Amino acid sequence: MKILTFLRDFVITCVITFIISTIVSYLYSLIVHGTGTIDWEASIRFAIIFGIIFPSVRIIEKRQKD
Hints:
Elements (H helix, E strand, L loop, with lengths): L1 H32 L6 H26 L1
Helix pairs in contact: 1-2
C-alpha cells in the first residue's frame, strides 16, 4: 500500500514539476534571450528529483508523526 501511494505521489509530482519547469524555462528564454526555447534536460531532471524528494519527505514526516 505504501508503494502504491509513493508511486502515485511520484507521478503527480513529476507531471506538475515537468509542466511548470518547461513553462518557466520557455518564459525565461523568451524574456532574457529573446528565443523561445525549452530546456528539456533541466525540466526532466527537476521532475525526477522533486518526484523522489517530495513523496519521500511526506513519508518520513508521517512516520515521525505516528
